[in-house]
TrEMBL record:
Domain of life where this protein originates: Bacteria
The species this protein was found in: Methyloceanibacter methanicus
Signal peptide residues on this chain, from the entry's feature table: 1-31
Domain spans labelled Ig-like SoxY: 41-152
Keywords of this entry: Signal
Listed name of the protein: Ig-like SoxY domain-containing protein
Any Pfam family matching the protein: SoxY
Length: 163
């Protein structure tokens, strides 16, 4: 009787251990997947994007105080003389990664410092990206890593003047 109980006990422990290993092995791969190639393809197709070439500058805080109110500033330096066509902002790991697309008209002008500032929510550690399209169709990108999480789950009633 004791022998049968010990054998049954060992088999049950082995089955539980195997189930735990199976659950851990089945962790979703997409949790660590780099989503940018997919987002890039959806937004820009196979068009080349010049990365970190100085045509667009993305400024974010080094330390994020509140993931529900992360300030970002996108600047187009004065040395960029071309007219702007559009600016798209992405946060790769947000539930809706495309934060905004700004389309520029004649009032945006050409040359001189041009900038845009806003606050965004960040759901999980992620890259923020600003992709600038010039009138000639060329694409330029700046990116920064944001170490913040939980901003998309925060209450809606946040006071942007509080931080």
């Amino acid at each position: 009787m004791t022998y049968a109980f010990n054998t049954l006990s060992r088999m049950l422990c082995g089955a539980v251990l195997a189930a735990c290993v199976g659950v851990l092995a089945a962790t979703p791969v997409h949790a660590k997947e780099d989503l940018w190639p997919i987002l890039r393809e959806q937004a820009f197709g196979d068009r080349p994007i010049a990365e970190e070439d100085g045509a667009v500058v993305l400024e974010t805080p080094q330390k994020v105080e509140d993931a529900a109110l992360v300030p970002i500033t996108v600047r187009v330096p004065p040395h960029v003389k071309d007219k702007l066509k559009s600016l798209s902002i992405f946060i790769d790991n947000n539930p809706d990664p495309k934060v905004a697309t700004l389309n520029f008209g004649p009032a945006a002008g050409a040359g001189g410092e041009r900038s845009f500032a806003t606050r965004v929510r960040v759901d999980n550690f992620s890259h923020a990206r600003a992709v600038l399209e010039l009138e000639d169709g060329s694409l330029h990108m700046a990116s920064k890593f944001l170490a913040a999480a939980g901003g998309c789950a925060a209450m809606q009633a946040k006071d942007p003047e509080a931080t």
